[in-house]
Write a structure and sequence with these properties.
The complex is a heterodimer of chains A (234) and B (217).
Chain A lengths: L7 H4 L8 E4 L9 H10 L4 E4 L10 H6 L3 E6 L6 H8 L4 E4 L2 H12 L4 E4 L13 E4 L2 E7 L3 E12 L4 E2 L8 H7 E12 L18 E4 L19
Parallel strand pairs in A: 1-2, 1-8, 2-3, 3-4, 8-10, 10-11
Antiparallel strand pairs in A: 5-7, 6-7, 8-9
Chain B lengths: L3 H9 L7 E4 L3 H4 L11 E4 L3 E5 L20 E8 L2 H9 L5 E5 L2 E3 L4 E2 L2 E2 L3 E2 L5 H7 L3 E4 L11 E2 L14 E3 L3 E6 L2 E7 L5 H6 L5 E2 L10
Parallel strand pairs in B: 1-2, 1-5, 5-10, 6-11, 10-12, 14-15
Antiparallel strand pairs in B: 2-3, 3-4, 6-7, 8-9, 12-13, 13-14
Chain lengths: 234, 217
Protein backbone atom coordinates (compact mmCIF):
# COMPACT_ATOMS: atom_id res chain seq x y z
CA UNK A 1 0.00 0.00 0.00
CA UNK A 2 1.28 3.39 -0.92
CA UNK A 3 1.67 5.56 2.14
CA UNK A 4 3.59 8.49 0.74
CA UNK A 5 1.67 11.57 -0.37
CA UNK A 6 3.01 14.70 -2.03
CA UNK A 7 1.69 17.22 0.46
CA UNK A 8 -0.97 17.98 3.08
CA UNK A 9 -3.75 18.73 0.57
CA UNK A 10 -3.32 15.30 -1.02
CA UNK A 11 -2.91 13.43 2.26
CA UNK A 12 -6.04 15.02 3.74
CA UNK A 13 -8.14 14.51 0.60
CA UNK A 14 -11.04 12.69 2.27
CA UNK A 15 -11.53 14.64 5.51
CA UNK A 16 -15.17 15.65 5.65
CA UNK A 17 -17.31 18.03 7.67
CA UNK A 18 -18.13 16.55 11.07
CA UNK A 19 -14.96 14.46 11.39
CA UNK A 20 -13.36 13.69 14.74
CA UNK A 21 -9.73 14.74 14.47
CA UNK A 22 -6.80 14.35 16.85
CA UNK A 23 -4.00 16.88 16.52
CA UNK A 24 -0.60 16.27 18.08
CA UNK A 25 1.48 18.88 19.85
CA UNK A 26 1.87 20.59 23.20
CA UNK A 27 1.26 24.31 23.00
CA UNK A 28 2.70 25.16 19.59
CA UNK A 29 5.50 22.60 19.98
CA UNK A 30 5.27 19.67 17.58
CA UNK A 31 1.96 20.67 15.97
CA UNK A 32 1.09 19.47 12.44
CA UNK A 33 1.44 22.90 10.81
CA UNK A 34 0.96 21.72 7.24
CA UNK A 35 -2.15 19.69 8.05
CA UNK A 36 -3.72 22.60 9.93
CA UNK A 37 -3.00 24.97 7.03
CA UNK A 38 -4.66 22.53 4.66
CA UNK A 39 -7.76 22.18 6.87
CA UNK A 40 -8.01 25.97 7.05
CA UNK A 41 -7.73 26.22 3.26
CA UNK A 42 -10.31 23.50 2.65
CA UNK A 43 -12.71 25.03 5.18
CA UNK A 44 -14.09 21.73 6.50
CA UNK A 45 -16.52 22.45 9.32
CA UNK A 46 -18.22 20.99 12.40
CA UNK A 47 -15.01 19.30 13.44
CA UNK A 48 -14.46 17.71 16.81
CA UNK A 49 -10.83 18.36 17.68
CA UNK A 50 -8.92 16.41 20.30
CA UNK A 51 -5.68 18.17 21.20
CA UNK A 52 -3.92 19.11 24.42
CA UNK A 53 -4.24 22.83 23.61
CA UNK A 54 -6.17 25.01 21.19
CA UNK A 55 -3.30 27.00 19.72
CA UNK A 56 -3.06 30.78 19.97
CA UNK A 57 -5.25 33.37 18.24
CA UNK A 58 -3.29 33.39 15.00
CA UNK A 59 -1.51 30.04 14.92
CA UNK A 60 -2.20 26.34 15.34
CA UNK A 61 -5.79 25.33 16.01
CA UNK A 62 -6.50 29.01 16.65
CA UNK A 63 -6.54 29.44 12.86
CA UNK A 64 -9.38 26.92 12.61
CA UNK A 65 -11.26 28.49 15.51
CA UNK A 66 -11.10 31.86 13.83
CA UNK A 67 -12.88 30.39 10.80
CA UNK A 68 -15.43 28.66 13.05
CA UNK A 69 -14.48 25.21 11.77
CA UNK A 70 -14.48 23.63 15.21
CA UNK A 71 -17.75 22.48 16.76
CA UNK A 72 -16.26 20.79 19.78
CA UNK A 73 -12.86 20.97 21.42
CA UNK A 74 -11.52 18.30 23.74
CA UNK A 75 -8.38 19.58 25.47
CA UNK A 76 -6.63 19.89 28.83
CA UNK A 77 -5.48 23.52 28.73
CA UNK A 78 -6.86 26.29 26.56
CA UNK A 79 -5.37 29.48 27.98
CA UNK A 80 -3.56 31.93 25.69
CA UNK A 81 -6.41 32.04 23.18
CA UNK A 82 -8.86 34.95 23.33
CA UNK A 83 -10.90 33.75 20.33
CA UNK A 84 -11.37 30.41 22.06
CA UNK A 85 -12.54 32.03 25.26
CA UNK A 86 -14.96 34.27 23.35
CA UNK A 87 -16.55 31.33 21.49
CA UNK A 88 -16.70 29.28 24.66
CA UNK A 89 -18.38 31.96 26.77
CA UNK A 90 -20.86 32.75 23.95
CA UNK A 91 -21.77 29.07 23.68
CA UNK A 92 -20.71 28.76 20.02
CA UNK A 93 -18.05 26.24 20.90
CA UNK A 94 -18.60 23.07 22.87
CA UNK A 95 -15.67 22.30 25.15
CA UNK A 96 -14.68 19.27 27.17
CA UNK A 97 -11.71 19.85 29.46
CA UNK A 98 -9.96 16.73 30.70
CA UNK A 99 -6.77 16.14 32.68
CA UNK A 100 -3.64 16.02 30.56
CA UNK A 101 -2.57 12.56 31.71
CA UNK A 102 -6.08 11.24 31.08
CA UNK A 103 -5.97 12.71 27.56
CA UNK A 104 -2.62 11.04 26.88
CA UNK A 105 -3.58 7.71 28.36
CA UNK A 106 -6.93 7.55 26.54
CA UNK A 107 -4.88 7.81 23.32
CA UNK A 108 -2.49 5.16 24.56
CA UNK A 109 -5.37 2.82 25.42
CA UNK A 110 -6.77 3.17 21.89
CA UNK A 111 -3.40 2.32 20.40
CA UNK A 112 -2.94 -0.62 22.75
CA UNK A 113 -6.37 -2.06 21.96
CA UNK A 114 -7.71 -1.50 25.48
CA UNK A 115 -11.25 -0.10 25.81
CA UNK A 116 -10.72 1.87 29.00
CA UNK A 117 -8.37 2.85 31.78
CA UNK A 118 -8.66 3.65 35.48
CA UNK A 119 -7.01 6.85 36.68
CA UNK A 120 -7.11 8.76 39.97
CA UNK A 121 -6.98 12.12 38.15
CA UNK A 122 -10.18 14.06 38.75
CA UNK A 123 -11.58 11.93 41.59
CA UNK A 124 -13.71 14.17 43.81
CA UNK A 125 -13.83 16.95 41.20
CA UNK A 126 -16.36 17.90 38.52
CA UNK A 127 -14.36 15.73 36.07
CA UNK A 128 -15.72 12.68 37.88
CA UNK A 129 -19.38 13.58 37.26
CA UNK A 130 -21.27 10.71 35.65
CA UNK A 131 -18.22 8.44 35.61
CA UNK A 132 -17.82 5.01 37.16
CA UNK A 133 -15.61 5.07 40.26
CA UNK A 134 -13.78 1.93 41.30
CA UNK A 135 -11.78 1.38 44.47
CA UNK A 136 -8.49 -0.50 44.23
CA UNK A 137 -6.48 -1.09 47.41
CA UNK A 138 -8.26 1.72 49.22
CA UNK A 139 -7.93 4.40 46.55
CA UNK A 140 -10.60 5.62 44.14
CA UNK A 141 -10.12 5.69 40.37
CA UNK A 142 -12.27 6.93 37.48
CA UNK A 143 -13.08 4.78 34.51
CA UNK A 144 -12.14 6.65 31.33
CA UNK A 145 -12.72 5.30 27.83
CA UNK A 146 -10.19 4.96 25.03
CA UNK A 147 -10.59 7.65 22.38
CA UNK A 148 -12.04 7.00 18.97
CA UNK A 149 -10.98 9.36 16.22
CA UNK A 150 -11.52 9.36 12.47
CA UNK A 151 -8.14 10.94 11.87
CA UNK A 152 -4.96 11.61 13.79
CA UNK A 153 -2.85 14.42 12.36
CA UNK A 154 0.63 14.33 13.74
CA UNK A 155 4.05 15.86 13.29
CA UNK A 156 7.34 13.94 13.47
CA UNK A 157 10.93 14.95 12.91
CA UNK A 158 11.93 12.09 10.64
CA UNK A 159 9.91 9.43 8.93
CA UNK A 160 10.42 6.87 6.20
CA UNK A 161 8.29 5.65 3.34
CA UNK A 162 7.10 2.72 5.51
CA UNK A 163 5.60 5.22 7.96
CA UNK A 164 8.14 4.69 10.75
CA UNK A 165 8.57 7.85 12.81
CA UNK A 166 11.17 9.53 15.01
CA UNK A 167 10.34 12.56 17.11
CA UNK A 168 12.63 15.27 18.40
CA UNK A 169 13.00 16.54 21.98
CA UNK A 170 9.77 17.74 23.62
CA UNK A 171 8.05 17.93 20.23
CA UNK A 172 7.26 14.26 20.83
CA UNK A 173 4.56 14.93 23.49
CA UNK A 174 1.17 13.63 22.24
CA UNK A 175 2.28 12.79 18.69
CA UNK A 176 3.22 9.10 19.06
CA UNK A 177 0.13 8.50 21.23
CA UNK A 178 -2.30 10.06 18.79
CA UNK A 179 -0.52 8.28 15.96
CA UNK A 180 -1.61 5.01 17.58
CA UNK A 181 -5.17 6.17 18.17
CA UNK A 182 -6.41 7.40 14.78
CA UNK A 183 -8.51 5.26 12.44
CA UNK A 184 -6.49 7.01 9.76
CA UNK A 185 -3.19 8.48 10.92
CA UNK A 186 -1.53 11.11 8.77
CA UNK A 187 2.03 12.07 9.65
CA UNK A 188 3.88 15.12 8.38
CA UNK A 189 7.65 14.99 8.76
CA UNK A 190 10.56 17.37 8.36
CA UNK A 191 12.68 14.71 6.70
CA UNK A 192 11.32 11.80 4.68
CA UNK A 193 13.80 8.92 4.39
CA UNK A 194 14.02 5.85 2.18
CA UNK A 195 13.63 2.40 3.79
CA UNK A 196 16.80 1.48 5.66
CA UNK A 197 17.94 5.02 6.27
CA UNK A 198 16.46 5.16 9.76
CA UNK A 199 17.92 2.86 12.39
CA UNK A 200 15.11 0.47 13.47
CA UNK A 201 16.36 0.78 17.05
CA UNK A 202 15.60 4.50 16.98
CA UNK A 203 11.99 4.31 15.77
CA UNK A 204 9.45 5.76 18.22
CA UNK A 205 6.31 4.92 16.21
CA UNK A 206 6.30 1.78 14.04
CA UNK A 207 4.82 2.33 10.58
CA UNK A 208 1.90 -0.02 11.19
CA UNK A 209 0.17 2.87 12.97
CA UNK A 210 0.79 5.37 10.15
CA UNK A 211 -1.45 5.26 7.09
CA UNK A 212 -0.25 8.33 5.22
CA UNK A 213 2.97 10.29 5.37
CA UNK A 214 4.28 13.37 3.60
CA UNK A 215 7.19 15.74 3.84
CA UNK A 216 6.01 19.03 5.29
CA UNK A 217 7.30 22.39 4.17
CA UNK A 218 7.81 25.94 5.39
CA UNK A 219 7.83 25.09 9.08
CA UNK A 220 7.41 28.19 11.16
CA UNK A 221 7.85 26.38 14.51
CA UNK A 222 6.62 29.36 16.40
CA UNK A 223 7.81 29.78 19.99
CA UNK A 224 5.06 30.66 22.44
CA UNK A 225 7.22 31.91 25.34
CA UNK A 226 10.72 32.89 24.31
CA UNK A 227 12.75 32.77 27.53
CA UNK A 228 16.52 33.14 27.49
CA UNK A 229 19.51 33.51 29.77
CA UNK A 230 21.14 36.78 28.67
CA UNK A 231 24.65 36.25 27.28
CA UNK A 232 26.20 38.51 29.92
CA UNK A 233 24.85 36.25 32.69
CA UNK A 234 26.54 33.13 31.40
CA UNK B 1 6.45 39.00 54.76
CA UNK B 2 7.99 36.96 51.95
CA UNK B 3 7.97 37.99 48.32
CA UNK B 4 7.48 35.45 45.52
CA UNK B 5 11.18 34.71 45.20
CA UNK B 6 11.50 34.18 48.94
CA UNK B 7 8.55 31.78 48.93
CA UNK B 8 10.41 29.83 46.23
CA UNK B 9 13.61 30.00 48.25
CA UNK B 10 11.88 28.56 51.33
CA UNK B 11 10.34 25.73 49.29
CA UNK B 12 13.77 24.93 47.84
CA UNK B 13 14.87 24.03 51.38
CA UNK B 14 12.52 21.02 51.17
CA UNK B 15 14.62 19.45 48.40
CA UNK B 16 16.63 16.35 49.18
CA UNK B 17 19.52 14.94 47.23
CA UNK B 18 18.34 12.61 44.48
CA UNK B 19 14.76 13.92 44.36
CA UNK B 20 12.79 13.92 41.13
CA UNK B 21 10.74 17.12 41.26
CA UNK B 22 7.91 18.58 39.19
CA UNK B 23 7.56 22.36 39.41
CA UNK B 24 4.34 24.03 38.32
CA UNK B 25 3.91 27.37 36.59
CA UNK B 26 4.41 30.68 38.44
CA UNK B 27 6.15 30.80 41.85
CA UNK B 28 6.97 27.05 41.67
CA UNK B 29 9.10 27.64 38.55
CA UNK B 30 11.26 30.03 40.61
CA UNK B 31 12.15 27.22 43.04
CA UNK B 32 14.70 25.93 40.51
CA UNK B 33 16.78 29.08 41.10
CA UNK B 34 17.29 28.31 44.81
CA UNK B 35 18.13 24.62 45.01
CA UNK B 36 20.83 24.41 47.73
CA UNK B 37 24.47 23.67 46.88
CA UNK B 38 25.35 20.02 47.03
CA UNK B 39 21.75 18.89 46.48
CA UNK B 40 21.16 17.26 43.13
CA UNK B 41 17.57 17.13 41.97
CA UNK B 42 16.20 16.14 38.58
CA UNK B 43 13.43 18.37 37.28
CA UNK B 44 10.56 16.67 35.48
CA UNK B 45 8.62 18.69 32.93
CA UNK B 46 5.34 16.90 32.24
CA UNK B 47 5.38 17.66 28.53
CA UNK B 48 8.12 15.03 28.28
CA UNK B 49 11.51 15.78 29.84
CA UNK B 50 13.54 14.62 32.82
CA UNK B 51 16.59 16.76 33.45
CA UNK B 52 15.30 20.22 32.62
CA UNK B 53 18.00 22.88 32.60
CA UNK B 54 17.95 26.69 32.64
CA UNK B 55 16.71 28.96 29.86
CA UNK B 56 18.93 28.78 26.76
CA UNK B 57 21.45 31.46 25.96
CA UNK B 58 20.16 34.17 23.65
CA UNK B 59 20.22 32.84 20.11
CA UNK B 60 20.20 29.18 21.19
CA UNK B 61 16.42 28.84 21.66
CA UNK B 62 14.99 25.66 20.18
CA UNK B 63 11.28 25.55 19.32
CA UNK B 64 11.26 21.79 19.92
CA UNK B 65 12.54 22.17 23.47
CA UNK B 66 10.07 23.77 25.88
CA UNK B 67 8.77 23.22 29.41
CA UNK B 68 5.20 22.75 30.59
CA UNK B 69 4.80 26.54 30.71
CA UNK B 70 5.71 26.64 26.98
CA UNK B 71 8.95 28.46 27.78
CA UNK B 72 12.12 27.69 25.85
CA UNK B 73 14.50 25.72 28.07
CA UNK B 74 17.54 23.45 27.87
CA UNK B 75 18.11 19.78 28.64
CA UNK B 76 20.98 18.99 31.02
CA UNK B 77 23.51 16.22 30.37
CA UNK B 78 21.87 12.95 31.40
CA UNK B 79 18.37 14.05 30.53
CA UNK B 80 15.67 12.02 28.77
CA UNK B 81 12.74 12.83 26.49
CA UNK B 82 9.51 10.83 26.40
CA UNK B 83 5.89 11.03 25.33
CA UNK B 84 3.03 12.43 27.41
CA UNK B 85 1.62 9.02 28.41
CA UNK B 86 4.95 7.91 29.83
CA UNK B 87 5.32 11.28 31.51
CA UNK B 88 2.03 10.89 33.36
CA UNK B 89 2.76 7.21 33.84
CA UNK B 90 5.78 8.03 35.98
CA UNK B 91 3.71 10.65 37.83
CA UNK B 92 0.81 8.24 38.42
CA UNK B 93 3.18 5.50 39.54
CA UNK B 94 4.55 7.76 42.26
CA UNK B 95 8.07 8.03 40.84
CA UNK B 96 8.14 11.82 41.25
CA UNK B 97 9.23 12.62 44.81
CA UNK B 98 7.95 16.17 45.11
CA UNK B 99 5.40 18.29 43.28
CA UNK B 100 5.25 22.05 43.81
CA UNK B 101 2.29 23.96 42.46
CA UNK B 102 0.31 27.13 42.85
CA UNK B 103 -3.26 27.39 44.07
CA UNK B 104 -6.17 29.82 44.15
CA UNK B 105 -7.57 28.20 47.30
CA UNK B 106 -6.75 25.32 49.61
CA UNK B 107 -8.75 23.80 52.43
CA UNK B 108 -7.65 22.65 55.88
CA UNK B 109 -8.24 19.08 54.65
CA UNK B 110 -5.66 19.44 51.88
CA UNK B 111 -8.13 20.04 49.04
CA UNK B 112 -6.85 22.32 46.28
CA UNK B 113 -8.55 24.53 43.67
CA UNK B 114 -6.42 26.04 40.94
CA UNK B 115 -7.96 25.54 37.50
CA UNK B 116 -11.22 27.37 37.03
CA UNK B 117 -13.23 30.39 38.14
CA UNK B 118 -16.78 29.72 36.92
CA UNK B 119 -18.01 32.38 34.50
CA UNK B 120 -14.68 34.23 34.57
CA UNK B 121 -11.69 32.11 33.75
CA UNK B 122 -11.63 28.84 31.86
CA UNK B 123 -8.12 27.78 31.06
CA UNK B 124 -8.26 24.14 31.99
CA UNK B 125 -6.51 21.88 34.44
CA UNK B 126 -3.61 20.83 32.23
CA UNK B 127 -1.65 18.24 34.19
CA UNK B 128 -2.58 19.55 37.64
CA UNK B 129 -5.33 17.01 38.35
CA UNK B 130 -3.05 14.12 37.41
CA UNK B 131 -0.24 15.49 39.55
CA UNK B 132 -2.29 16.10 42.68
CA UNK B 133 -4.07 12.75 42.42
CA UNK B 134 -0.83 10.79 42.43
CA UNK B 135 2.03 12.78 43.94
CA UNK B 136 3.44 11.47 47.20
CA UNK B 137 4.40 14.92 48.43
CA UNK B 138 2.68 18.11 47.30
CA UNK B 139 3.77 21.56 48.43
CA UNK B 140 1.63 24.53 47.46
CA UNK B 141 3.13 27.97 46.89
CA UNK B 142 0.61 30.77 47.17
CA UNK B 143 -0.34 34.13 48.60
CA UNK B 144 -2.05 33.80 51.98
CA UNK B 145 -4.85 36.20 51.03
CA UNK B 146 -6.47 37.60 47.90
CA UNK B 147 -5.55 41.17 46.86
CA UNK B 148 -8.55 42.44 48.84
CA UNK B 149 -7.45 40.63 51.98
CA UNK B 150 -9.68 37.53 51.97
CA UNK B 151 -8.09 34.32 53.21
CA UNK B 152 -7.27 31.69 50.60
CA UNK B 153 -6.71 29.06 53.31
CA UNK B 154 -10.27 27.94 53.90
CA UNK B 155 -12.42 25.41 55.76
CA UNK B 156 -13.74 24.35 52.31
CA UNK B 157 -12.70 25.49 48.84
CA UNK B 158 -15.36 27.58 47.11
CA UNK B 159 -13.92 27.14 43.59
CA UNK B 160 -14.10 23.92 41.55
CA UNK B 161 -11.62 21.43 43.00
CA UNK B 162 -8.47 20.17 41.33
CA UNK B 163 -7.97 17.40 43.88
CA UNK B 164 -9.08 16.34 47.34
CA UNK B 165 -7.09 15.65 50.49
CA UNK B 166 -3.74 15.78 48.73
CA UNK B 167 -1.72 18.86 49.74
CA UNK B 168 0.89 18.16 52.43
CA UNK B 169 2.43 21.57 53.01
CA UNK B 170 1.76 25.23 52.14
CA UNK B 171 4.28 28.04 51.90
CA UNK B 172 2.69 31.49 51.68
CA UNK B 173 3.96 35.04 51.96
CA UNK B 174 3.11 34.83 55.67
CA UNK B 175 3.80 31.31 56.87
CA UNK B 176 4.77 27.68 56.40
CA UNK B 177 1.95 25.33 57.31
CA UNK B 178 1.58 21.58 57.35
CA UNK B 179 -1.76 19.98 56.61
CA UNK B 180 -2.70 17.53 59.32
CA UNK B 181 -5.81 15.53 60.16
CA UNK B 182 -6.84 18.41 62.41
CA UNK B 183 -6.22 21.28 60.00
CA UNK B 184 -3.42 23.70 59.13
CA UNK B 185 -0.54 23.35 61.59
CA UNK B 186 1.57 26.48 61.76
CA UNK B 187 5.27 25.57 61.46
CA UNK B 188 7.03 28.85 60.72
CA UNK B 189 6.09 32.48 60.29
CA UNK B 190 7.57 34.99 57.85
CA UNK B 191 9.99 37.53 59.33
CA UNK B 192 8.06 40.35 60.97
CA UNK B 193 4.72 38.55 60.80
CA UNK B 194 2.98 37.74 64.09
CA UNK B 195 1.09 34.60 64.94
CA UNK B 196 -1.95 36.83 65.54
CA UNK B 197 -1.80 38.14 61.97
CA UNK B 198 -1.59 34.59 60.58
CA UNK B 199 -4.53 33.58 62.76
CA UNK B 200 -6.60 36.50 61.53
CA UNK B 201 -5.82 35.72 57.88
CA UNK B 202 -6.41 31.97 58.02
CA UNK B 203 -10.10 31.10 57.64
CA UNK B 204 -9.56 27.33 57.87
CA UNK B 205 -8.81 25.53 61.12
CA UNK B 206 -5.39 26.57 62.42
CA UNK B 207 -3.31 24.74 65.01
CA UNK B 208 -0.67 26.78 66.83
CA UNK B 209 1.59 25.00 69.29
CA UNK B 210 4.22 26.66 71.48
CA UNK B 211 6.66 29.09 69.96
CA UNK B 212 6.56 29.51 66.21
CA UNK B 213 10.01 30.22 64.74
CA UNK B 214 10.65 32.68 61.93
CA UNK B 215 11.37 31.37 58.44
CA UNK B 216 15.13 31.30 57.80
CA UNK B 217 16.29 31.92 54.24
Amino acid sequence: MKKVFANADEALFDIKDGSVIMLGGFGLCGIPENCIASLVKRGVKNLTCISNNAGVDDFGIGLMLRQKQVKKMIASYVGENAEFEKQLLSGELEVELIPQGTLATRCLAAGYGMPAIFTPAGVGTEVSQGKEVRNFKGKNYLLEYAFEADYALIKAWKGDTSGNLIFRETARNFNPLMAMAGNITIAEVEELAAPGELNPDHIHTPGIYVHRIFKGENYEKRIEQRTVTPLNMK
Amino acid sequence: MLNKNQIAQRIAQEMKDGYYVNLGIGIPTLVANYIPEGINVVLQSENGLLGMGPFPLEGEEDADLINAGKQTITALPGSAFFDSALSFGMIRAGKVDLTVLGAMEISDKGDIANWKIPGKMVKGMGGAMDLVASAKNIIVAMMHTSPNGESKLLPECTLPLTGVNCVKKVVTNLAVLEITKNGFKLLERAPGVSVEEIKSKTAGKLIVEDNIPEIKL
